[in-house]
Amino acid sequence: QVQLVESGGGLVQAGGSLRLSCAASGRTFSTYAMAWFRQAPGKEREFVAAIKWNVGWTYYADSVKGRCTISRDNAKNTVYLQMNSLKPEDTAVYYCAADQEGHILRIGVSGEYEYWGQGTQVTVSS
């Protein structure tokens, strides 16, 4: 059973930085794609960033490109989302998602992922 546990959220001022972590367990993730999505109150869940575990290929939403970096630590089975230059509009619950690469046709679509973490709140004050 795949388990994803996010951490690292919190309250930060605009312009600040946070690093989110997603600890994965229950599988060998070398053939998995991992992603971060976020959901603000009253809005749909939206894609933030994704990484293909084996090759480290990354993909970002335009809204975070240049401000966020997704990475993984193979030894720790952990995926990170480094967020810099945070804006109030980045406020949301951030979710980690995972599924086997072969199961994903559209890497930026939440419905393509089977496994989800519980989410971590990020609040950016102005």
Briefly characterize the structure.
The chain is mainly beta and 126 residues long. The protein has no helices and eleven strands.
The helicity comes to under 10%
Low-pLDDT residue spans: none
Count of β-strands: 11
Oligomer: single chain
What is the helix tally? Answer: 0
Structural class based on helices, strands and sheet pairing: mainly beta
Question: Nearest-angstrom radius of gyration?
Answer: 13 Å
- What's the overall average pLDDT, rounded? 95
Percent range for β-strand residues: over 45%
**Biggest β-sheet: count, sense, barrel?**
7 strands, mixed
**Spatial shape:** globular
H-E order? EEEEEEEEEEE
Taking the alpha carbons of the first and last residues, their distance comes to 40 Å
Report what the structure shows:
By secondary structure, this protein is mostly beta strands. 0% of the residues lie in helices and 51% in strands. It has no helices and 11 strands. The protein has strands at 3-7, 10-13, 18-25, 32-39, 46-52, 58-60, 68-73, 78-83, 92-100, 115-116, 120-125. Strands 2, 4, 5, 6, 9, 10 and 11 form a 7-stranded mixed beta sheet that branches.
